[in-house]
């Protein structure tokens, strides 16, 4: 991209934005605009996916490939009323969701947000689940649903090992929670026990839902070819429908299962070291979890602003920006927010936004500085979109090869602030995926409330499958009786 000269506001080539800026910026662009390098990254992730699925290799895999026990996507026949519970931070949501078959729509009838006080976050597990059960009771009263026993989708956004659709063991608390007596226990059982202690209402079957799976499922009712879910926001993750015969850690060969890849951990074994820059290394080392979630730290919203800040500090120290003068704010970790990147890259208002942001950060800028900052932002967001595309291409191509298809047509349900809010990210991601996997036609559908409506949809599909398998068992029973009758007739 050309750079402006200091004497003009026009976009004209500029020899004097020196070697060093060019080197830093072009080192990013050289690596991440090279199709071959992206294909190499994609091939590395492919190896990691296979390792994560393996029965014996899983424990040492950087990409964990967790079975979700979600065995199908919506087929359009799901219907009825469901509850959804979304717990992932200092607030949790309770929702009443209605699936309307005739309109192929998932409607949020109503919802309630409940706060979780600090003393409960640090108290006992019994106190936490009693608090959740009490809020759920109040919500059911307000909706006049107390007399009904509705199925519930439970989005529980903490590290868990899922054993079944309705059994999930908490591995460890994160996000400031430290409730005693919960780690190593089944959170569905703890919820049900709390509801039983109250005794004033009951719930039906429970489905545990990862938010990425919810993203896929909330789109799957509108578009039944949606078999991939992706989140690129504060963090990043993806899920997809894998052939059961490849899921070595779960018994059974027939059908498919949704796999929660946990692709944020890609590179935790050092496989991305050659494409990490000095800025990525600093971001990792100064984070609360060094050496963990390497890929996430290169592409997700929690870290992009900090990568830009470190690059701007480097350019300033090299006397290539702001006359070599930094500011206290610019030198403060976290001061350059990721939303600034979107604002600075906004078409039309970007340069004015950039001026306001740099003024807020206390640096003395001129028009060239603002354009260089925009170039830095574009470089970092573009790298994120392209790396994300390389990872998504791996999954799409895996589905195609799994099914022995010459050409795959599929849809990705997607969510997250980086995808939704950045002015160019979604377009660059889609263009790059098309380049990397020409044998896959991929549509993108922005999810509507994956952790609410999506959780209800997971429950609806689980119920449909349970009903179908019951019907099969019943019909098997009838066949046996008929055969016995026939045998008796023959004996006579």
Automatic annotation (TrEMBL):
Record has Transferase as a keyword: yes
Pfam families linked to this entry: Hexokinase_1, Hexokinase_2
Domain of life: Eukaryota
GO biological process: glucose metabolic process; glycolytic process; intracellular glucose homeostasis
Keywords: ATP-binding, Glycolysis, Kinase, Nucleotide-binding, Transferase
Chain intervals for the UniProt region annotation (Disordered): 470-492
The Hexokinase C-terminal domain, residue ranges: 227-461
Pathway(s) of this molecule: Carbohydrate degradation; glycolysis; D-glyceraldehyde 3-phosphate and glycerone phosphate from D-glucose: step 1/4; Carbohydrate metabolism; hexose metabolism
GO cellular-component term (any): mitochondrion
Recorded catalytic activity of this chain's protein: a D-hexose + ATP = a D-hexose 6-phosphate + ADP + H(+); D-glucose + ATP = D-glucose 6-phosphate + ADP + H(+)
EC number: 2.7.1.-
Enzyme class: transferase
Biased composition (Acidic residues): 474-492
Domain Hexokinase N-terminal per the UniProt entry, residue ranges: 34-221
Transmembrane segments: none
Gene Ontology MF terms in the entry: ATP binding; D-glucose binding; fructokinase activity; glucokinase activity
Family named by the database record: Belongs to the hexokinase family.
Protein name: Phosphotransferase
Species name: Seriola lalandi dorsalis
